[in-house]
Structures are given as C-alpha cells and as structure tokens.
## 1
Amino acid sequence: MKMRHVFYCCLLLLGGCVTFAAVPPGEVQLSGLTVTPQNSWNQAPREWTRLSRRDAKTWTKNGILLDRILIIPAVPDGEPLFLQTSESQALPRFNAGMLPNELAEFTESSIAKLFGEGGAVVETSGLRPQRFGADKGVMFDIEVKVSDGPDYKGVAGTLIVGNKLYTIIFIGAEPYYYTESVDEATALIKSARVAIPQ
Amino acid sequence: MLRILCFVYLCCSIALAAAEMKQAATGANDQAESSKLAIPQPRIPPGYQPIDRNTEKGLWMELEDYELSIQQSALLITDEPINAYVRNAACRVAGEYCGDLRVYVMRNPGFNAMMTANGVMQIWTGLLVRVSSEDELAAVIGHELAHYTQLHTLERLRRIQSNLATSSVIDLLIGLPLSQMAAVANIMSFNREQEEEADLLGVRFMHDSGYDPRAAVRVWEMLVEEEANAAAKSEAANIFTQTHPLSEQRIQTISDFVEKNYPDAATTTPDSSSHLAILNRYYLLLMEDQIDTNRYGRTETMLKHHRELGVNPGLIDFFYGEMYRQRKAEGDLERARQAYERAIQSDDTIAEAYRNLGYIQLKLDRPELARARFRKYLELEPDADDRAMIEFYLEE
C-alpha cells in the first residue's frame, strides 16, 4: 500500500513538472484579446513567470532570458501590470484615463520593477498612434539596460478598451535575438484585436 | 551573478546595516560613555595586501571577478565629469589610502555606497541625488573607507563561516531568488559595533582631509527626513523605515563625537557649488530614474531639498510636474499644470515641459491650449522621437 502511495506521489510530481507548450501560428484568444502569430512560439509555464498576472501569457522562441512576448489582457482600472507580491514594490497602477504618454511611462516603470528596482534602467521612445482594428492605441519602443545581463530592446503595443488595459510587449537580447524577432513581434502586436464579451 | 556577489561581499549597504544595528541594539544598553567616543585608528596600512592564505586571499580572488563584472555592467556610468567629481572626493577623503581605491559610479536610484575588501568602491546615483554637498558625499565615502581599513568584511565573512557547515558562503547563496537576497544581506550586514566604528573613523577621515565632519550628521538627518516622508505615504516599507529611533541615536553619537574631538571644526554654511554643478549637469538622468521608482514621498522630499540647494528652477518645476502628474492624488492634476507652467517660464526649461503641459491640458479638456503647447514642443524639438504621436493630436 505504501509503495502504491509513493508511486502515485511520484506520478503527481512528474505530472507537475513544468513544460513549455507550443503555440502554433494562427489566431489565439486570451480574455477578450485576440492575436495572430505568424510563426510558432513556446508558451512558458506559470512557474517561470511568477510575476505575471493570472491571465497573462509569456511566449518565447529561444528562452525567456533571450526573447519573450508578454501578453497581458484586460488589466482593470487601479491594478498593476504585473503581480505585486508586496506593497514595498510600489508597482504603478493602471488608470483608465491614462493618455498615450502615461501608458508608455506606466509600461516603462512596470518593466523596471519586473527586472528589479535598481537592477535595470528602462527607457521608452518612439511613441506613436496605432489602430488595433476599430480601437485606437499606441506603440512605442523599449530599451532595457540590466546591471548583470545583456541589453534588451523591444517594442510594445497597448490600448484601453472598456476601461481595461491590453498590453503586448516584446523584448529581445541585443543584438541577435531582438533583430531576429522584432519584425515578427511587431506584426503580432499590430494583429491585436479586442472583443469584449457581451 | 553580479547582484548575488554584491550582497555577499560588499562591505556596506547602509540601509541594511542600519537594520542590523537595530537588531543588535535590542536589549543593549544605550551607552554613550566618553570612552566610546575616542578617535578610532585604522587597522591596516595603505597598500595593504591579503595575509590570511585561505579566507582573505580567496575573498580577494573572488572580488577580482566581481570587479570585472562591474566594469562590464550596462549600469556603470562612464561619463568623465561625474566620475571625476566622485573620484576626487573619494581620493581626498581617503588620503594616503587613495591608491587602494577603484571608484565606480553606478546608475541606481537607491541610496547606497559600498566598498569591498579589495578596494572596489561603488557609489549609486541615488546617493548623489540625495546629498547636498561634496562634504556630505565625503561623509558616506569616509564611512565606507572605514569599513575597508578595519577589515570589517573579513570579520563578517569569518563570523558567517564559523556558523556554517560549508566553507563557502557562495555555495550556500547561489541559486537563491532575488526576492530572498534582502534576508541574505541582513545576515551578511555589519554589526552595531562595526557600524559605529565606521561612523566615527569616517568622521576622522573627513576631518583629516579638510571636509566638514558635521556633514556626517547632516547626511543622517536628511535620510531620517526622507524616511519619515516615505512612511507617511505608505510607500517606503523598506528596512530603513524601521530605524528612525536608531538613526536619531546614531546622529547623536556622531554629533557628540564631533563636538568632543573636533570642537573647532568649521560651522560655516557648507559649500555646495561643486555638487550643485553635478546635479544640474545630470539632473534629467538622475531624476528620471527616481521618478521610475514610483516612490513619490521620497521624490517630493528630494525636490524640496534640490530647490533649497539651488538646482535650476526649470528642472525642479518640471519634475514637480512629473511627480504630481504620475501620483494622481486629489488636486495633483492642477498642481502638475501649475508646476509645468512655472517650468516653461524658466530660462532653463526643457522642451518636454511644453509637451507634458500639453497632455495636462488635454486632460483638462482644453484642446486648443494643448495644441499650442504641442506646437511649441515640436518647434523646440523638431526631431522628437514621439513626433508622430504629437502630430496625431495636432491633426485631431
């Protein structure tokens, strides 16, 4: 009997092993947000993205330290872009009345906190309007300098629909991984559409 | 890796050390006998090299790798004027130990300075943005230098090793998530006696090099004020917040030490001109990093100090506008508008003040005023990287 319990425990443990799941090309729906990747990506298990919101997804091609797309749908008014594990983190909170400059600043400050306050300097630039279907949004470029890692560059798209924030962020290590995927990631961001369930 | 080694080896994280002091102080008598205020003596000569074959030489070897990682860090500031300013202050306060130091200015909005056992000193930009004069900068450097000359890191490492089954502290710590590093740093921080010794010897270094020893008192007073403001806004929650009583005790001890040993030290107003020049030159970089921390109580305290210090008013008002605009407390929108309006009246204003005032006017539903500010922004900054966004609003 005991051996059987041990066997089941082992089975459960093995079943809990974290694995990346393939994301094939084609339409993907996430909490009212639809994106259409042109090529395959790999979805990171939640264990690898502990600061992600519950309905957020992280995709990568070569590993999340080299390149990643963060898809963060439907952030309600007053909530942060990432999970806040303690008040001392002082994560900025989304406000449904944010203007484009504030959305870029909000994303910038949130990413800086994601890398660890003081552990990275994040700068956004190239703020520009972007249509996501019928909805108005913005896109902007990102640069991340990390104290003990590679430099990153990236691009982000963000829009507010129904007082909720939808954000897609791509960052890739400079120079190779950013260059390799930036065009594809930009197309993926531009493919974003929000359909609020009635 | 850099961050891990940082926590393991660095001689001092002042905030964390303060917490260690508080723990050590629990249950201890509040002694301030005059014997404790005697002038400490450095334990090692200039040009010191490691003696202990195992722990000390091993530590130095690891620290050589660590220094290499600092040199390669993207957050190392290489701009010469700011490096020259910090390096000169460090060399002056170090005196005959100057040749033992390698000084690195790191881009980090936190208040911190650190020194390793082999002479690598890091100064964070968050320290530069908080102190008001070269004397105050020298006070922090003197404190760190004292940890170096008293071999406090080595003592600490030996203390840790004696309590561990493993001979390698690194073996124990590598692989820990960053969120647990604060706890590790707490274990590794200096004890109360070491901190007090560094405080007092640091003051001696300052006095001997011609700096105002009372600046050490002013640094601690400034930090206490910042923590009080941060706590009042429920945003601090760092370990330093818990140390007000001890910080006040620390201030008193340093003050008593100065009065006892250096009663003739100058009491004139400190010369802030060299520090002010650095702040004005790098203010955008320094304060943008601070704004990104989202810690508005601290930012507001700094801006108040900077205005008193004489930082260019156009820059001060611009960052007041940034702080109010992002804080979004009741009345902040109007406060931000007024701050930006003051900023654009200043001779030393920046184009971004017009742009952000334009966004404020949009929020206040004044599109014509917004467009006027946006047009001025593009006039001043025709190659602005957000030109497409601004033109969108001009054409809307």
## 2
Amino acid sequence: MTAILQIVFDALSLGSIYALGALGIALIFGVMRLVNFAHGDYISFCVFAMLVPSTDAMSEMFLGSLPTIVLIPVILLIGAGVSVLSEIIVFRRLRDANPATMMIASFALGFILKHFLLMLFSSRPKSINLWPDLGLPVEILGARLPLLQLIAIGITIIILVALSAFLKRTRFGLEMRAAAENFTMARMLGVKANQVILIAFAISGMLAASIGLILAAQTGTSDIQMGVSVMLVAFIATVIGGLGSLAGAVVAGYLIGAASVLMQVILPLEARPFRDAFVYAAVIACLIWRPQGLFAPKSAKQRV
Amino acid sequence: MSFLSVTNVTVRYGRLTALRHANFKMAAGETLFVTGPNGAGKSTLLKAIAGVVTPVEGQIQLAGQVISGTVPEDIARRGFSMVPEGRHVFGTLTIEENLRLGAGMRADKDAVAADLAGCYEVFPMLRERRDAPAAVLSGGQQQMLVIARALMTGPQLIAIDEPSLGLAPKIIDQVYDVLLRLRDERGLTLLIVEQSSTRALLTGGRMLLMRSGEIVMEGDARELLRGDALKQAYFG
C-alpha cells in the first residue's frame, strides 16, 4: 500500500513539472502557432537568476537569499520578463513568417540564452541551497514523502485551477481562448493581437519560473541544461495532448510523468537504464494510434 | 461626406491580382450589395476593408480616417464589423461567450446587456443553448450566431459575406429583417456580398457588380436586377 502511494506521489510530482512545462508551450502555440524551444532556457535562466554570477563550483545566493515571500514573485517576474522580452525583440518581428521560421528563431534564442548563462556561470553544475527544510520527509498513510513533493503537487494544482479560472472567467482569458481558435476572426471582433500575445508570453514565462523554483528546490542543483530536458518532455506532452489543447497538454504531461515512474518500477532491473527508451516507444505508439494527439482541437488543423 | 470610401484599391496574392483599382463610396445608413461570379474579388474587397489583407495600392477611409494599412482590431474598433464567409464561430467557446467576445471592446455595459437581450429575442434558439459550445450548432445556427456576434460589436457598418449561403429561406428572411430594422432604427450601414442577389429586389439599395477583380458596374440594385445589364455582365 505504502509502495503504491509512493509511486502515485512520484508520478504526480514528476508529472506536475511536465504538465507545467507543456502548458507553457501550449499557451504560446495556441495564440501564435509557435513552438517556443527557448522555453526550457527560460527555466534555467530563472534558476540562475538566484545565484551570484561566478564560474566557481560553489554557488553563492544572490536573489536566492531574499526571503521566500519576496523571492517567489521576483523569480516569477523574471520569468515573465524574459519571455515577454523575447516576444517583443524576436517573435513579434516574425509574426507573419511561417511556423518553421519562428521555430528556428526560438532555437536561436535558446542558444543565446544558454550561452549567456554559460558566460556568466560556466557549464559546471552547481549546488543550490533553496528551501532545504522542505526536503524533510513527512509521513502520510505510512509512506514517507518529502514535503517538497507534496508542495510541488499542491502548487501545480493551484496554478492549474487559477489558470483555468483566468481563461474561463476573465475577458483576457476569453480573448485568449478565442485567439487560440481563430486569431484573424478574433481580431476582426476587436481583440488586440499584441495584448493577447504579450499576456500569453507573460503567463508562459511565469510557468517556466515556477518549474525553475520547483526543480531547484527538488534537485538542489543548478545546471544550464536543466530546463532543456524538461522542455523536451514537455514538448512531447503538448504533441501527444494535441497541439493547441491546453487541457490535453496538462493531461499528457501527467501521463508521461506516470509512464516514467511506472517504467522505473515495473521494468526488470537490467532494463531500467533504458527506461526513457520505453517511455518514448509508448509515445511513438500513441502518435501512431492518434497522430493528431489525444485532444486535438479542430482549429489546429485549419491553421497549421 | 461618404462614410466609407475605397479609392483605387489593388490587392495581390503573390502574383495574382485579386482586386484591381476598386473605387466606390458609401454614405452612412446606406445599403450596398456587391455581387458577381466566383473569383470576382468580392471577398477580397471585404478583407481589404477589414484590414485582413493589405492593399498594395490605393486608400480606404472609414468615417474620414484612413484605415488601409492599419490592423483589423483597430478597424473593428472604429465601427466596422465583418462577417467573413464560412461561419467562423469559436467552437470551443459557448454561444454566450461568442456573443460577449463581440462586445468585448464596448465599455457601455447597459447597452451591451440590452443588445444581448435583443439578440436572444431575435434568435431564441441562441438563448436556449447559450451555455453550449458553439461547435454543436448546425450550419444555419452558426451563421445566425456570427451575424448576432457581429451586431454585438455595436457597429456602424456591418459587412457580411454571403449571409444566405446554406440558410433556409425562412431564416434568411429573419436575418434580413434584423439587418433592415437596425438600418432603419440606428442608421446601420450595410455592405452585403451575395452571389445570388435577388434579395436586393426587396431591400433596395445600390449594387456593385464585380468580375475578374474589377468593379464593372454600379447602379440602383432594383434597376440592375430587372434589366439585362447584369446578365450581360455575368456572361458577356
């Protein structure tokens, strides 16, 4: 029983990170038909923003030494800021370009961000000491779980509920959903394209920042590559979920998280190093079965 | 002073010229039909006014201000509401959300509420299913929704591409009743693209005939429809 509980919580907490990442990608894809591969680098950027720039192996907290109640909004703002700036400086100019051009531009932007961090911090992973108290285990129904895992799951649920309330209940949310479905028609009804896209980028950046915070606290390390691996899985989740479907992205994020954790448990010991290969085989099978994704919106087809 | 003036407007899609040196004017409160065979450039003309395509040449003015070269949302905010061909409902949004989106740029909350009630009165079917996603509506119902949504923007000029396409005659009558009532009550200017233009016999107004990207004839709708000129222009 406790073992099952442990698996469920592992799956939920890993899935939460993928779901948040997939959501950040799906939001931008929805309004712009852009797969933003720089998204993963926003995550690393937010993590490194907490450290004093140096190439030493030991890290020194910079923003990270702020009290938690200040740190969280500051990092969220940094995430939103870097995301919004990339829209203003890069993507806005390419809005009428074809999706492939925009995607390549997002790769380029990702490289620039990565090398900027490389310049300031070197490529060596550093330890980062964020909220060490949260690593302590708590006991739930006999299972010993790190408190942080529960918090990560809880925060993800809060974010998902808040975001869906925003999309359902506010005017900007309504405009964003309409724009995701048919941008031209939305504009003809007076929806301001730039405003909707900027808000989408800001939210997407904040999602990246929250992943950065959770990852930094969970792993205790800061690594320039840390966002990229999340981005890869998150991107796959958006594709499985059906590009453009926000709910699909979240569900698929959790599915991949669950698949990874399950494989870890059920695969025979000697096959475990190939866990990811099995997960991706499942992904391929899923895409052969439903190439349009699990929850493909009709609109995605007409416009891509 | 004309409310809408289209001066020497040319639109190209790549090397194809879809609209060539279009010229016409509309007074406020006027009804203008644009007719012509497939591929005549009728829809392109509407898209150029809406700002969805940018003319390579010429100028479009709405209420005395140049709108060509500006973005669709700004043109919509100046009182131009466009119903493009093909029933572009937001299928995942509910019917009421579709209507509210149309009213999104209006600050006059009371008037919006009154217009919403008005829409529901004219199209009771929309009220019955207000919380259903628009995708479940039939083709004709979707057409009613997009017209109602365009009216929710509180337009001074509404441009509709093929309002009767795929609608039952009874519904077409309803749609025109609403449009004409708004024209008479509020001075709504109507720009209607119809391939089958006999409706103009009942409503009156002016008519433009387009062919191969050009406006080839302009005149009183009833006269054009009764005479042979139209037939000749179509086939000759």
